[in-house]
Design a protein that fits this description.
By secondary structure, the protein is α+β, with helices and mostly antiparallel strands. It folds into 3 domains: about 190 residues, Rossmann fold (3-Layer(aba) Sandwich); about 100 residues, 3-Layer(aba) Sandwich (Rossmann fold), CATH 3.40.50; about 130 residues, Peptide chain release factor 3, domain III (Alpha-Beta Plaits, 2-Layer Sandwich). It is about 30% helix and about 30% strand. It is built from 14 helices and 30 strands. Strands 26-23-25-24-28-29-27-30 form an 8-stranded antiparallel sheet. A 7-stranded mixed sheet has the order 2-3-1-4-5-10-6, with helices on both faces. Strands 17-16-22-13-14-21 form a 6-stranded antiparallel sheet. The longest helix is centred in the middle third of the chain and has 17 residues. It is globular and about 80 Å long. The structure holds guanosine-5',3'-tetraphosphate. The site of guanosine-5',3'-tetraphosphate has 19 residues, from helix 2. Guanosine-5',3'-tetraphosphate binds next to helix 2. GO terms for molecular function: GTP binding; GTPase activity; guanosine tetraphosphate binding; translation release factor activity, codon nonspecific. Keywords: Cytoplasm, GTP-binding, Nucleotide-binding, Protein biosynthesis. This is Peptide chain release factor 3. It is found in: Cytoplasm.
Length: about 525
């Protein structure tokens, strides 16, 4: 095999890729849309409606036990499939009201995101939170307004609300056509055609019959005399809508000035194909990523990438851990010698894999935008960079401060060693942070959302046969402690043992009970720095 890479090869491979995540509030329809996208991409052949809550079938992306039991996505899977000569890498974000650090990191590893909104509910709290992160990271957003088959808010009001929440101009690409208080089709502004609702459900099937008799398919010509009024109404309305919103321009979309909007019903697979066609045509190709020292461009010939996720125990029999790397530049090929920047070690990689939920394929090559999984024997951490030789550290992946803290207590105290092994392995995945209290050796877990605590206890039970209970602790936030003066640093730690913990890299952290306390202690110890991030 020829491992040499030239600019033409890499430029053409970059153009073929689109890497994105779906963000939504729970129940907006993310799983159902994912399933329909996989169906259109020929990854799955049947679309049984996925209802994990009721213990029926599970989607390719819902594979952990806790996910199955609760019907939510806790972990993040990577789904890759081809459609119209594009390779789509879809990163599934956890869809529950809690956030894990995982969710934030996923948004560092994608080039745009698809925001799914339930038409009857509008922009909900989780979507808002994710939206802010996506905007902060400069990631373009495409909106899909789902469940138009159900009763939903007035379309104009919904779009008004969306425009305010997003603080962006909207550009509807499709728009629902109503008739007799029902949505009977979609108008596609770019195709300049109307598409009638095709559905096999008996109730709507009748509606379809009615429509096919009444209207001509695929355009806005209404054929029956008594519908002349409706025809005029819709022609005028489409004109009016077109004037009320901005025309889609690719460069405005990239600059986050405009948000393309689609409508549809994931359940009925209506409107999804327009979305997918748009994603492959306008979804931004792999973009440059910021490192602390410089911007890395995808068409650079040397390989670079960063670890945004580690998943432990994907295969319980082998207790293996996979590090997920987003390829930023260059080309991965079997046997490539990579430089692990943090440990300054070089090693050959022969068995990088691509994953579709828990199915694995050994990769021959990978290009910018792709997600590769490499086996991790405990030496790889989230945020680590891999290059061919350059010392690069990508920004925006680590440094998230947990918001909820609890102490961990074993039901069987003899399992302490096993607990520490298990919990530190789960920490590597990045959804929790673990600290040991300096004076008592008590284990403290910090996470962004309460659900992570349930995930940890469930996984420790299943994967390590450990049962535990949590207790509340008086920790509001944490700060990493640092000082140039070693003696003062040691004295400070000795004098404040009750408030000090140690993280997995043996850095000292200060457990802050409240902000007033933090202000006082910082004023009293001006030579001690209380940092929001670990020193790199
Ligand atoms: P999520 O991953 O965002 O959490 O949502 P998911 O796809 O699981 O969908 C949540 C519920 O909404 C599911 O119903 C699903 O069938 C339904 N749903 C998804 N898309 C549509 C749509 O376009 N129209 C309608 N009417 N329903 C849709 P479920 O599992 O039966 O839950 P529930 O209805 O019993 O709560």
């Amino acid at each position: 095999m020829n491992f040499l890479i030239n600019v033409n090869e890499i430029t053409s491979e970059i153009k073929k890729r689109c890497t994105f995540a779906i963000i939504s509030h729970p129940d907006a329809g993310k799983t159902t849309i994912t399933e329909k996208l996989l169906y259109l991409g020929d990854v799955i052949r049947t679309v049984g409606v996925v209802k994990p809550k009721k213990n029926k079938k599970h989607t390719q992306s819902d594979w952990m036990d806790i996910e199955k039991k609760r019907g939510i996505s806790v972990s993040t899977s990577v789904l890759s499939f081809s459609y119209k000569n594009k390779l789509i890498n879809l990163l599934d974000t956890p869809g529950h009201s809690d956030f894990s650090e995982d969710t934030y990191r996923i948004l560092s590893a994608v080039d745009f995101c698809l925001m799914v909104i339930d038409a009857s509910k509008g922009v909900e709290s989780c979507t808002q939170k994710l939206l802010q992160v996506a905007k902060k990271k400069g990631i373009p957003i495409i909106t899909f307004i789902n469940k138009i088959d159900k009763d939903f808010k007035n379309v104009f009001l919904l779009l008004d609300e969306l425009e305010k929440e997003l603080n962006m101009l909207l550009s509807p690409i499709t728009y629902p056509i109503e008739y007799d208080n029902n949505i009977i089709g979609l108008y596609h502004f770019q195709n300049q055609k109307a598409y009638w609702y095709h559905n096999t459900k008996s109730l709507i099937y009748k509606k379809k019959q009615f429509l096919l008799n009444t209207f001509e398919k695929n355009n806005l010509i209404f054929t029956q005399e008594d519908n002349i009024k409706t025809q005029f109404f819709w022609k005028k309305k489409i004109n009016h809508i077109q004037k009320s919103y901005i025309n889609f321009q690719y460069k405005d979309f990239l600059l986050l000035d405009v948000n393309p909007v689609f409508f549809g019903s994931a359940l009925d697979n209506f409107g999804i194909v327009f979305l997918l066609n748009f994603l492959v045509k306008f979804g931004p190709i792999p973009q440059p990523k910021m490192a602390y020292t410089r911007k890395i461009f995808p068409n650079e010939l040397k390989f670079s990438g960063f670890v945004f996720k580690i998943q432990a125990n994907m295969n319980l029999k082998h207790r293996d851990r996979i590090a997920f790397i987003r390829v930023v530049s260059g080309k991965y090929f079997k046997g490539i010698k990579l430089f692990h920047v943090r440990t300054k070690k070089k090693f050959s990689i022969n068995n990088a894999i691509s994953l579709l939920a828990n199915n694995r394929t050994v990769l021959e090559t990978a290009y910018p935008g792709d997600i590769i999984g490499i086996y991790n024997h405990g030496n790889i951490r989230i945020g680590d960079s891999f290059t061919e030789s350059e010392d690069i550290q990508f920004s925006g992946i680590n440094n998230i401060i947990p918001e909820i803290f609890k102490s961990v207590h074993l039901i069987n105290p003899l399992h302490q060693k096993r607990l520490l092994k298990g919990i530190f392995q789960l920490e590597e995945e990045g959804a929790i942070q673990v600290f040991k209290k300096l004076n008592t050796n008590e284990v403290i877990i910090g996470a962004l959302g309460i659900l992570q605590f349930d995930v940890v206890s469930e996984r420790l039970k299943v994967e390590y046969q450990i049962e535990l209970i949590y207790k509340n602790v008086e920790i509001h936030t944490i700060r990493w402690i640092f000082s140039k003066n070693k003696i003062r640093y040691n004295d400070f730690i000795n004098d404040n043992k009750d408030f000090i913990g140690i993280d997995n890299e043996k850095n000292a952290v200060y457990f802050v009970p409240n902000i007033i306390h933090l202000n006082i202690i910082s004023e009293q110890n001006l030579d001690i720095f209380f940092l929001k991030k670990k020193k790199i």
